[in-house]
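@channel anyone free to eyeball this complex?
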Amino acid sequence: MSAPSLGKDLVGLEPLSAEQIQLILDTAEPFKEVSERAIKKVPALRGKTIVNLFFEASTRTRISFEFAEKRLSADTVNVAAVGSSVSKGETLVDTAKNLEAMRIDMVVIRHGSSGAAQFLGQRIRSNVINAGDGKHEHPTQGLLDMLTLRDRFGRIKGLKVAICGDILHSRVARSNIWGLTKLGAEVGVCGPASLLPRHVEELGVTILPRIEDAIQWADALNVLRLQLERMQAGFLPSLREYNRVFGITNERLARAPKDLLILHPGPMNRGVEIDSDVADGPHSVILPQVTNGVAVRMAVLYLLAGGSPHWAGRGDER
Amino acid sequence: MPSRTPLLDERAFSRTLARMASEIVERSGGTEELVLVGIQRRGVELADRLKRLIDTSEDSNLPCGKLDITLYRDDLQTIGPRPVVGETSLPDLDGKTVVIVDDVLYTGRTVRAALDECADFGRPRRILLCVLIDRGGRELPIQADVVGTSVSTGPGDRVDVFVSELDGRDAVEIVRGK
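replying in thread with the prediction:
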């Protein structure tokens, strides 16, 4: 008997099998309870040193990883690109090799370039976890979205999930598309044509041209953040117009044939891609997503730290 | 060829549990402040059986918890992560007499982990260890307070405990390695 293992790194959901994704989600379940204990700490990763290497701004993801690491008793160090030798021109590999010379065990990396996590994973011995690389993937976000969907619907298979907004620039969209389709969900994408990647339908998704189509079709909407920093490139005429055509409002949701679950990876632009009364409404699971994020990251850290792909397979040795 | 020999059949199994139930009450001086905690997997079912036996004879309603010690193991590196970690749910342990229940006591490492985990949940007044089978082979200075049956085994042997809730029958069998 062999249990699925994750291998050395978590770069994305694309290379994972359905069984591996299922394993992470199942492992996350008991970790939810750890965060509810009075002493929110278990010794599973005692003695492990983990570096959180963040080359891009992040609050939620970095803090969520840090909580996950601390609740597993790992020792953690945060390195932000600003104020480190990265700003003096050191290369990514040199930075990581130097950290590794201080005997670390894992690196969690967020980087602006697609492929950075995989590039690093191939060059250092430590486990590498992708916390978002360019427009490529953000696997732990995809996993926590899936865990939240599974919590509410009891299953992933057969669900219709519409991902709405800026698909083109979104690593969250890619991780969700890979993960959800592998577990048998149907995925739709909805956004302005200028923000949909070319040939996106080749990923096995349905294109929903109008937000009204998405609301009619879906069981759940995953509303992406409109990446305002990209507005200069002329993808959209104006934020007001975006809200008028694609914004998720209670008026629009009222016309849905059933209650839709509303997800958002944060940070939200209230009044742009999502209205406040939806974000704070009864069908929003935006805060449960954040809670699940810690459990999913604990599961990933725990599974990768075990390391050995040759898991002994004996459940009951004493 | 490994050989399989029965150690407890269904009737011996239930006699043993009944004796363990009364020993637990004796050792802890009644059912006041008594809490049973089963270790995942089969310890949970055994703790539940003992609770029902004690509740019937003592007219009590004992709090019963379950403990998964996976995250407290000291061998994550050598055996790798278990595929799925079980549920942990414990009642209030502060000031209680806690009886840890497991099916087989062998190296003592599981119990060491369970003691550490209990300590993170509260401060019991006293902790007792109750096992269905003590198979010897301790690697830590740990002993059971209530034992169903002792049997001496070698490292190549295996003790299989079957409980009807999970396996459809109550039995204990020894599989001799050589």
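from a first look: The first strand of chain B starts at residue 3 and ends at 8.
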